[in-house]
Design a protein that fits this description.
- The complex is a heterodimer of chains A (about 220) and B (about 750).
- By secondary structure, chain A is α/β, with parallel strands linked by helices.
- Chain A folds into 2 domains: about 130 residues, Rossmann fold (3-Layer(aba) Sandwich); about 60 residues, Orthogonal Bundle (Arc Repressor Mutant, subunit A).
- Chain A has 11 helices and 7 strands.
- In chain A, strands 2-1-3-6-7 form a 5-stranded parallel beta sheet, sandwiched between helices. Chain A has a two-stranded antiparallel ribbon with strand order 4-5.
- With about 750 residues, chain B is of the alpha+beta class.
- Chain B is built from 20 helices and 19 strands.
- Classes of the chains: A alpha/beta (about 220), B alpha+beta (about 750).
- At the A-B interface, helix 1 and helix 6 of A face helix 15, helix 16 and helix 17 of B.
C-alpha cells in the first residue's frame, strides 16, 4: 500500500444498518484516522467508485447485497483500482462462499460475527499482508491449481513451497504452526499465502466468472 | 525343429483332391460294370431270384420280361448253328448284397467262385436268360445285351453310399485341416478314412446287378471290413481323447493292434466265419458307448467340454434314432415303403455333422435345450415303435389297431412324463419381472456408491453363482458372452467396474442366451433406476441449496443484526446460533464429508479461537487415513459442535493457559482427548448433577450418534474424552422385499 490506511479512504459496503455501524466502530479501532464512506447497495457502491475510486485504499465488502453479489465490486476493484485493498466481510467462511471472492481479487476476508477486538486484529493483519486461509479454501485452491483447466502454469502455477504451505493449511494448521513445521518465519509463510491469493486471482479471472455463473452466484 | 505346419487351406485342397481321385476310381469301376438293366431280388422264401423291375433302357429281345418273373439260370448265347451250352442255375445267395453274412468261409469261397462264373457270362455281349412266366408258370428264354452303364443309370443305393463316404470325408477333412495337430480331429479324420474305404467298396459290390469278378470281390470285401473296423476304432479313439483325454496317447496304439488282429483272423479265415465281423462291430459299439459314458463322467466339472460332448451325444442319439426309424420302423410297422440297408448309411452324415460341430465347439452355449428336445422326441418315437412291436408280437394284433393303441398309450403316458421332465429341467430359470425390478432398485438406491457396487456384485453372485468374478477392462456398453458361454461380460454400472463372470452355477453350467437376456434386462433396469435416483438427488440438492440460501440471507442477516446490538450476555448465544447455521448450511450443501477435512476444519477453528483467547494449543497434525472415511451430516455436525462446545468451556471457565488435544483412530471409532491445565470442573458437574446447560446438551449430542463423553479432574486441570463411532447408527432405508432366486438353476 502506497498510502497508509491511517490516512487513506475506505469504502464499506454493507446493507444492514446495525452491522454497518458496528463495522464502522471496528474500522475506527483498527485504523484510526481512516476516512470511511459507506454504501448499502451494489448500485450505490458502483456510483461511489465512479467518482472516488482512484483515491480508495481499502474496501470492506459484504457478499450478500440486496441487488447482487459483492464479488462484482471486488472484481471491479481488482481490475480498475489496484491500489485499493479489497476485503470481503461475511458470516460464512466455507469455500463455496469465499473462493469466488478470492478468485475475483479479494485480498482477505473477515467473519462478521467475530468479537470486535478479534476483528480489529484480523483486519490489521490483512492490511499488513497476512491474509487468513481456512482449510476448506486451501483444499479448494489445491484442487484448483492441480486442475487440468489451468491455462498458464508458468505464470500462475504454484511453486513447490507454496504448495507445501497450502497443504499444511488444508490440514488445519495456522500460519504460525505451518511456519514452525517448515522451519520458516511466520511472516515468510504469510507472504506465501499472499502470493497464493494473487496467483489464484491471476489464474482464474476468466475461470472464476465461468464458475460463478455455473453456481448461480454471480 | 518342427516342420512348418501346412496352412488349413492347403490341407483342405489335399483332402478335396483325394476325394476327387477316389470318386473318379469308384465311378470308373461302377460304370465299367456290364449291366442288363434288371433289378434282381432274392424271393422271400430264399430259393429263387426274381426280377423286381426292368429298366427302360434295358435291351432285351422278345418276348421280354415282366416284373415278377423268376430268373432260373443264365447262359451264353450259342453261336448260330451250335448247341446251347449248359446254363448256370441261379441261387438266391447270388444276389446277396453283403457276402460277410454267410456262415462259413467255405461258403464264402464258393460264393466268390460262382460270382466269377456268372461274371464271365455277363461279360459276353449277349446273355441267354432262362425265365419263368409269373402268370402262366411256363419256362421261356430271352436274350439280354449287357453294356457298361453311364453314371445316371447307377442304382440309388450306390449313390447314397458313395455320397455318404465323400461327404463324411470332406467334413472330417475340413475339421482336420483346421486343427491338424489335435488328437480329436486326427481321430475324426481316421474315421473318415475307414468310412470311405467301407462305403466305396460296398457301393460297388453291394449294388452290383448280379455278379462281379470273384477276385475283385475277394479284394474289396477285406477293404470294406478294414474300413468298417477302422471307423469304429477311430470313434473309440476319438472319445478316448476328446473332449477330455481319458488315457495317455500311447494307449491309443492298442486300437491299430486290434485292427491288425481282427483283419489277420479275417484274411487267414480263422474263426467263426465271415459274420464274425458283426461281432467285432458289436464290441466296438459297446466300447463307444462306454467311452461316451466315461467322457460324460470326466467332463462333469468342465461345462464347456460337457457341452462339446453334448453336440456329439446329440448327433449320436439323432443318428442312431433315425437309423432305427428308417431301418427298423418299416419292418415293425409293416409299412409299404422299406428303405434298403444301403440307403440307411446316409444317416452317418448326421453323425458326422454333429461330430464336426462338437470338435469345432460351435456355439456350445446354445446347445443345451436343443439336445434335450431332440432327445425327448427320439425317445418318444422309439417308445412308440417298441410298444407297437410288443403289441404286434405278443398279442398278435394287426398292425393298424396295434399302432393306434400304441399311439394312445404313449400319448397318455409318455407325453405328460416328458412335459414334467422338461419343466424340471428348465424350472425357475426365469426371474419374475417384479423381482428383477426390485433388484435393480435395490442396487441403484443403496446408501452409497460403494454399497451400490457391493449390492450389484451380490446380485450377480446370487443370480449366476460364478466361480470367478473379476474386474474387466471397460469395453462394450452391453453384456456379452465369450468363451463358448463360459464367461459373461457386464459393463460398468452402479458404481461397480466392468465385470467378467466365469464358470457360472458353481462351474456346472454355461451362460446360455437366456442368461444373457437376463443380464441385459438387469443392466437396462439398473441404468434406469440410477437415472431416476440421480434426478431425485438433483432435486434434493436444489431444494437444499434453496434452504441454505434462505438461512444465509434471511436468518443469518437477522442474527447478525441482533449480535451487533446485543449485550454481552446474549452475544455468545447468538454467536452459537450463527455457528449452528453455518454447520447446517454446509451440511445442506453437501451430504458427506471426509474425516480428514472435518478434522482440519475443527482444528483450524480451535486454533484460531485459542490464539484469540491467548491459550496455547498442542494439537499434533495426525497422518490419519481420513480421506477414506466418510462422515454423514449427523456425525459431522455432532463432532464439530462437540469440539466447539468443549473449546468454549475451556475459554470461558477453565482459566487454563494450555490445551492439549490428541486423537486416536481405532477401526471405526474416533477418540479425542482434551486436557487443559485449568481449575478443573466442579464436583457437582462431574457427578452429573447440576451440569451446565452446555454440558448437558453436549452429552445429548454425543450420545445421539452412539458416542460417549467422559469428564474427569486430573488434579492439574480437566480431561475430557470424546468417543464417536464413525458409522452413524441411522435407520437405513427399507430395502424392499428380499429378492430372489434361490434356484435360478443351472444351465442344462
Amino acid at each position: 500500500m502506497n498510502t497508509s490506511p491511517q490516512t487513506g479512504l475506505c469504502l464499506l459496503v454493507e446493507d444492514q444498518p446495525h452491522t454497518r455501524d458496528w463495522m464502522l466502530g471496528v474500522l475506527d479501532s483498527a485504523f484510526p484516522g481512516l476516512r470511511v464512506a459507506t454504501a448499502g447497495t451494489l448500485k450505490a457502491a458502483h456510483q461511489w467508485l465512479d467518482t472516488n475510486g482512484t483515491k480508495l485504499t481499502l474496501a470492506v465488502v459484504d457478499i450478500g447485497l440486496p441487488d447482487g453479489s459483492g464479488v462484482d465490486i471486488v472484481r471491479r476493484l481488482a481490475a480498475e483500482f489496484p491500489d485499493a485493498l479489497p476485503v470481503v466481510a461475511t458470516i460464512y467462511d466455507d469455500d463455496a462462499h469465499l473462493f469466488e471472492a478470492i478468485a475475483a481479487g479479494a485480498r482477505g476476508y473477515v467473519l462478521k460475527d467475530e468479537e470486535a477486538n478479534l476483528l480489529v486484529g484480523y483486519l490489521k493483519r490483512i492490511e499488513s499482508g497476512e491474509p487468513p486461509l481456512s482449510p476448506s479454501i486451501a483444499h479448494r485452491m489445491l484442487a484448483h491449481f492441480r486442475g487440468p483447466t489451468l491455462a498458464r502454469p508458468d505464470t500462475s502455477g504454484l511453486s513447490p513451497r507454496e504448495t507445501e504451505v497450502l497443504t499444511l493449511l488444508a490440514r488445519g494448521m495456522t500460519v504460525s504452526e505451518a511456519a514452525t513445521r517448515l522451519g520458516l518465519q511466520p511472516q515468510t509463510v504469510a507472504s506465501y499465502v499472499k502470493v497464493i491469493y494473487q496467483k489464484l486471482n491471476i489464474s482464474s479471472r476468466a475461470e472464476a466468472t465461468r464458475e460463478a455463473l455455473k453456481r448461480g452466484l454471480a | 525343429m518342427k516342420p512348418a505346419a501346412a496352412s488349413p487351406g492347403l490341407l483342405l485342397v489335399a483332402v478335396v483332391l483325394l476325394c476327387a481321385v477316389l470318386s473318379w476310381v469308384t465311378f470308373a469301376a461302377a460304370t465299367s460294370m456290364p449291366r442288363m438293366g434288371l433289378t434282381l431280388l432274392a424271393s422271400p422264401d430264399g430259393t429263387v431270384v426274381t426280377v423286381a423291375s426292368v429298366d427302360l433302357s434295358a435291351r432285351i429281345d422278345n418276348p421280354g420280361i415282366v416284373p415278377g418273373a423268376k430268373l432260373r439260370a443264365i447262359g451264353t448265347v450259342p453261336a448260330p448253328g451250335s448247341a446251347p451250352a449248359d446254363p448256370i442255375p441261379l441261387e438266391a445267395d447270388d444276389v446277396r448284397p453283403e457276402p460277410d453274412s454267410l456262415d462259413t468261409y467255405a461258403a464264402l469261397d464258393a460264393f466268390y467262385a460262382r460270382q466269377s462264373m456268372l461274371a464271365a457270362i455277363l461279360a459276353q455281349p449277349s446273355v441267354m436268360l432262362y425265365l419263368v412266366n409269373p402268370l402262366t408258370g411256363a419256362d421261356y428264354t430271352a436274350v439280354a445285351y449287357p453294356k457298361s452303364s453311364p453314371w445316371w443309370t447307377l442304382p440309388s443305393g450306390f449313390w447314397v453310399q458313395f455320397l455318404t463316404g465323400i461327404a463324411g470325408t470332406l467334413i472330417a477333412g475340413w475339421v482336420w485341416a483346421l486343427r491338424p495337430r489335435a488328437l480329436g480331429p486326427i481321430m475324426f479324420a481316421l474315421t473318415a478314412v475307414g468310412l470311405i474305404g467301407a462305403t466305396a467298396t460296398s457301393a460297388l459290390y453291394a449294388n452290383r446287378e448280379l455278379a462281379i469278378n470273384g477276385d475283385w470281390f475277394a479284394t474289396m470285401t477285406p477293404i470294406n471290413h478294414a474300413g468298417s473296423l477302422t471307423f469304429g476304432l477311430a470313434i473309440i479313439g476319438l472319445f478316448l481323447s476328446y473332449p477330455r483325454p481319458l488315457v495317455r496317447p500311447r494307449w491309443l496304439l492298442v486300437l491299430p493292434l486290434a485292427l491288425l488282429v481282427a483283419m489277420g483272423l479275417d484274411l487267414a479265415k480263422i474263426g467263426a466265419g465271415p459274420s464274425q465281423l458283426y461281432l467285432w462291430v458289436a464290441l466296438e459299439t459297446l466300447a463307444i458307448f462306454i467311452t461316451i459314458a466315461a467322457q460324460w463322467w470326466s467332463t462333469r466339472r468342465h461345462p464347456s467340454d460337457r457341452a462339446a460332448l453334448g453336440w456329439i451325444g446329440l448327433s449320436v442319439i439323432a443318428g442312431a434314432g433315425s437309423y432305427t426309424l428308417l431301418g427298423a420302423a418299416p419292418v415293425v410297422l409293416h409299412l409299404p415303403f422299406g428303405v434298403p440297408q444301403s440307403h440307411v448309411t446316409g444317416v452317418l452324415v448326421v453323425i458326422y455333422v454333429g461330430l464336426a460341430l462338437g470338435l469345432l465347439r460351435y456355439r456350445l452355449f446354445e446347445l443345451g435345450r436343443w439336445a434335450y428336445r431332440i432327445l425327448f422326441y427320439t425317445v418318444g418315437a422309439l417308445l412308440l415303435l417298441t410298444f407297437d412291436a410288443v403289441l404286434v408280437v405278443t398279442l398278435d394284433l394287426d398292425s393298424a389297431p396295434a399302432f393306434g393303441l400304441a399311439l394312445v398309450t404313449v400319448g397318455f403316458l409318455y407325453l405328460p412324463l416328458r412335459d414334467w421332465l422338461w419343466q424340471r429341467l428348465t424350472r425357475s430359470r426365469q426371474i419374475e419381472d417384479h423381482q428383477l425390478f426390485a433388484a435393480a432398485i435395490d442396487v441403484a438406491f443403496a446408501p452409497s456408491r460403494q454399497d451400490s457396487a457391493i449390492r450389484w456384485r451380490d446380485l450377480l453372485v446370487r443370480l449366476f453363482d460364478p466361480l470367478e468374478l473379476a474386474e474387466a477392462d471397460a469395453g462394450a456398453a452391453q453384456p456379452s458372452l465369450t468363451s463358448d458361454g463360459l464367461t459373461l461380460f457386464l459393463p460398468a454400472i452402479a458404481g461397480a467396474p466392468a465385470l467378467r463372470l466365469a464358470y457360472p452355477f458353481a462351474g456346472r453350467g454355461l451362460f446360455a442366451p437366456e442368461h444373457l437376456q437376463l443380464a441385459n434386462q438387469l443392466v437396462t433396469l439398473t441404468e434406469h433406476a440410477e437415472a431416476g435416483r440421480a434426478a431425485y438427488t438433483r432435486g434434493v440438492g436444489e431444494e437444499r441449496r434453496r434452504m441454505a440460501r434462505d438461512l444465509h440471507d434471511d436468518v443469518g442477516a437477522r442474527l447478525l443484526t441482533g449480535l451487533h446490538t446485543a449485550d454481552t450476555a446474549t452475544r455468545p448465544i447468538l454467536q452459537a446460533a450463527l455457528s449452528d447455521i453455518r454447520a447446517i448450511v454446509s451440511g445442506l450443501s453437501g451430504d458427506e464429508a471426509s474425516l480428514d477435512r472435518v478434522l482440519a476444519e475443527t482444528r483450524h477453528e480451535t486454533a484460531r479461537r485459542m490464539e484469540a483467547a491467548g491459550i496455547a494449543l498442542d494439537w499434533p497434525v495426525n497422518d490419519i487415513p481420513g480421506d477414506t472415511i466418510q462422515l454423514d451430516y449427523r456425525l459431522h455436525k455432532a463432532l464439530t459442535s462437540s469440539v466447539r462446545e468443549i473449546v468454549s468451556n475451556v475459554i470461558r471457565h477453565a482459566e487454563a493457559s494450555t490445551l492439549a488435544v490428541s486423537l486416536d483412530l481405532d477401526g471405526d471409532r474416533l477418540a479425542l482427548h482434551f486436557a487443559d491445565n485449568g481449575i478443573g470442573l466442579a464436583t457437582t458437574a462431574l457427578a452429573g448433577d447440576s451440569q451446565g446447560f452446555g454440558l448437558r446438551n453436549l452429552r445429548h449430542r454425543v450420545e445421539d450418534v452412539g458416542g460417549r463423553l467422559t469428564l474427569a479432574n486430573t488434579g492439574k486441570g480437566t480431561a475430557i474424552g470424546l468417543d464417536i463411532p464413525l458409522r452413524a447408527i441411522v435407520p437405513t432405508p427399507d430395502r424392499g422385499p428380499s429378492v430372489l432366486p434361490e434356484a435360478l438353476g443351472s444351465a442344462p
